[in-house]
Amino acid sequence: MISFFLALDLGVFHKSNETPTTKSALRWTAIWFVVAMLFDVGVYFLYEKKLVGLGAATSGKDAATLFLTGYIVELSLSLDNIFVMALIFKFFKIAGEIQHRLLFWGILGAIVLRIIMILLGAALINTFSWSLQLFGALLVYTAIKMFLSKGDDDFDPEDSFIVKIARRILPISPKPDGQNFFTRVDGKLLATPLFLVLLVVEGSDVVFAVDSIPAVFGVTQDPFLVFTSNIFAILGLRSLYFALASLLRQFAYLKYSLMIVLFFVGVKMLIAPWFHMPSVASLGVIVGVLIGGVVASVVLRKEEQEPLSEAEPGKADEET
Fold first, then answer.
1. Closest CA relative to residue 201, chosen from 120, 71, 91
2. Sign of CA dihedral 262, 264, 265, 270
3. 159-168 pLDDT per residue, tens
4. Cβ-Cβ contacts under 8 Å for 103 (sequence gap 6 or more)
5. Sign of the torsion formed by the C-alpha atoms of 35, 40, 42 and 43
6. DSSP-assigned letters across all residues of 221-233
7. Which residues, in sequence order, are CB contacts of 63 under 8 Å at separation 6+?
8. What is the pTM of this model?
9. What's the rounded Cα separation, in Å, for the pair 267 and 272?
10. DSSP 3-state of 33
């Protein structure tokens, strides 16, 4: 089923290299959200009828709640990833239709990398029970580090580790070749600057996956739910990017909500041996924190703009 949706998204509906309009991107974001919710209904029946072996001890209601929580956590944490991708594309001056191609291959790479990381994470937790607390400590550390950081405005893709390594290992053409990742110059096969950008995009996804995958394991240790919640969040990532990339700065306080979500899930993992929060309560806290960030961004931004708008008539009178 996952392969079907992936082929539908990447190979049928979005196979042409065109920049989606904001309206189209919002429509597809809504479509993938509805598809995820329909899949969640399927999760309920799979676990209720004990058709999924890994969830034999989980009721359909609990499984559906855990999938929804994991999906929301993944979707919310991907907002930071979207912002970084927008900075990468802006830094390298990537046109909209080429951004579409980069995201096409970036999503395929992200899925493969996350499958590997999820399998390794599940094996680690099953082998060493204390590794869950290790993941929790990592999330708490990341949340604190995000809170103390100055922001992403100083992010320079050219200084990233992956770019420095790629320039040393790969022969790279000094000039781009349209939408091609490789080109031939004087009979030699060279990587284009666009391939370098693809590597940076993939590298940024790995960095964010180091946070997001442990966060989902903090919601549930069921590999099926961890994997599917990740995949459905990634399926909607490209549409979400074109819908929100230019609007993320409008939601300045949403970043603090993401920090709180990471900190909350991390603490939950740390205290798991002694206290287990009901899945419904956990979902309520996460959704409440995210809504709070959106509301705070809208309200406080409006309050900041009001004094400016009130001052404009006076300024106009002075000029006349």
1. 91
2. positive
3. 777 778 888 8
4. 85, 201, 237, 238, 241
5. positive
6. --HHHHHHHHHHH
7. 43, 44, 46, 47, 52, 55, 222, 225
8. 0.77
9. 8
10. helix
